[in-house]
Amino acid sequence: MLKKTLIISLSTFISSFAFANIDTVQANLAKNSPNLKIENIQTTEMKGIYSGSMQGQVVYLNEDAKHLIAGPMLRIQDQHNLTRDLMLKQNSIDWKKLPLQDAVKSVRGTGKRQIAIFSDPNCPYCKKLELELKKLNDLTIYTFILPLKPQSVAPSKQVYCESNPAQAWEDLIAQGIQPKSKKTCANPIEQNKKLAQSMGVNGTPAIIFSNGFKVMGAYPAEQIEQIFKEFNL
Prior knowledge:
The chain is of the alpha+beta class. It has helices at 2-32, 82-90, 124-133, 153-159, 165-175, 189-198, 221-230, and strands at 39-43, 49-54, 57-62, 68-70, 74-75, 80-81, 104-108, 113-119, 139-145, 206-209, 214-216. Residues 1-18 have low confidence and may be disordered.
């Protein structure tokens, strides 16, 4: 009984000590760089080094919060990429919970690789992302149309009234060609807005990979390929 009590007490002490160090890092960060927003600060395997999330990226800092390191942390023994684990943990959603039936589906090549994107037809960065996605092969793209701009709402809804929504979306996002259909039909725009909010997507474009890893912004094709490779997707 005494041994069990000692183990529990020691565990509580170690846990409290870890949180105390994290509190120190947060306090030093607020003091040294009040405008630098780093979230999810936690301990790492490397003594005295802490990880955090900044604009969706994993960064590292020491206890006095005077130095910041960006880049992968590897465990030498087995070459395991610890940063990759943190990236997935901090920026992940459940792919299986995506209502893919509400997305506009586009298949290129075999379509064996999958991503979902949130996109606004009048968002310049969304247009840039579409150009980058055209450089990728063997890809299935599920587009959740998210009209954040007022002028995007009407054409976004009309995409779903076309006989070929995928082509209508491509014409709209790539060339600004408005859907020709004048009829009204059911559309998932409101559901898409609620979905985006529930997943922390408050801007466009957003990319979600099939393992749930989420990134924001118009990533170049090379970086998207690198993510596929990094996670063996």
